[in-house]
Write a structure and sequence with these properties.
Blueprint (H helix, E strand, L loop, with lengths): L5 E5 L6 H11 L3 E3 L3 E2 L14 E2 L2 H9 L3 E7 L2 E6 H9 L3 E5 L2 H10 L4 E6 L3 H11 L4 H15 L7 E4 L3 H17 L7 H6 L2
Helix pairs in contact: 1-7, 5-6
The chain binds guanosine-5'-monophosphate.
């Protein structure tokens, strides 16, 4: 059976990546979402093992030491990392695996898996991003300002990605994301021997 493809998704906070991916996962049952481990505190509504594998810093360090992580990073004071086994097992089983990770981790994954597909999600504008961050109502004005500045910095790394999906309207962004996955599955390099098999008929 053909191996699955590895899809790396990054986006600044507030671009709607969680919602896009949730919807995409409902619509394509060959997609597998890799649940990361983190040492950050659980937010209201999050579920251990679903949103993240929540671990203490010590537990996280143990995972690093045991080589259990494909990549990890320290982001705004907390550890985040991708558990290796689930990803490699799922790819082996032919599932297309989504990693929702920040830019540094994404660059590391690209080095390990040069044929991964990298998708960057963009806001339609900074004005709209600011409006969405305010609408969430979870952060103070200062934090929102910081997040917007971080978003500007992160956007500079979009040039390292293969695809840009702009989240102006959720449904279109989901369609674009699923189209990327579909197009990637058709890449000639991912279908070795197909032409030869046909010719051998
Ligand atoms: P949050 O704390 O808002 O859930 O995530 C903060 C950032 O960490 C987001 O950009 C998210 O994509 C990223 N992140 C989540 N899991 C991982 C991971 O396993 N590895 C890396 N490198 N980044 C991650």
């Amino acid at each position: 059976m053909a191996k699955g493809i590895l899809i790396v998704v990054s986006a600044p906070a507030g671009c709607g990546k969680d919602t896009i991916l949730e919807q995409a996962l409902k619509e394509n049952d060959n997609l597998f979402y890799s649940v990361s481990a983190t040492s950050r505190a659980m937010r209201p509504g999050e579920i251990d093992g679903v949103s993240y594998h929540f671990r203490t810093r010590e537990q996280f360090k143990e995972m690093i030491k045991n080589g259990e992580l494909l990549e990890y990073t320290e982001y705004v004071g907390n550890y985040y990392g991708t558990p290796k086994k689930a990803v490699t097992d799922m790819l082996e089983a032919g599932k297309d695996v989504i990693l929702k990770i920040e830019i540094e981790g994404a660059a590391n994954v690209r080095r390990m898996f040069p044929d991964c597909a990298m998708v960057f999600i963009l806001p339609p504008s900074f004005e709209e991003l600011e409006r969405r961050l305010h609408k969430r109502g979870t952060e103070t004005d200062d934090v929102i300002k910081q997040r917007l500045e971080t978003a500007r910095k992160e956007l500079k790394f979009a040039e390292n990605y293969d695809y840009l999906v702009t989240n102006a309207a959720l449904e279109d962004a989901v369609k674009d994301f699923l189209a990327v996955v579909r197009a990637e599955k058709c890449r000639r390099e991912r279908r070795p021997g197909v032409v030869e098999e046909l010719l051998a008929e």
